[in-house]
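Subject: Translation initiation factor

B.,
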Amino acid sequence: MPKKKLGLEDLGGFVYSTNDDFDGNEQNETQETLAPQDQYLEAHFSNKGRGGKTVTIIKGFEGSNEDLVVLGKKLKKKCGVGGSAKDGEIIIQGDYREKVMEILKKDGYNVKRVGG
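Prediction pasted inline below.
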């Protein structure tokens, strides 16, 4: 069996620099979270790359990772399912697009249904 080649994402975010002035904290800049009425989110439905399991993906969140996690936790709790929030996306297990869109609209977010 051939050995799997590693990509940059498989290195776990390790950063090496030959620059003596590099402190490594330049990537961790905090992004200011926009107000809900200024956010334009997209509600996607997907089952690709997940072993046939269906998920609802919320894309387009602009803000800090902490605020993304808080919003994801709220959506997961209201839907009563699991999921995750990372890389600017909220993943909710199952097809809960309508319910998630309703919750987000009540909170003042602009949400658009994308895909089938």
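The radius of gyration is 17 Å.

T.
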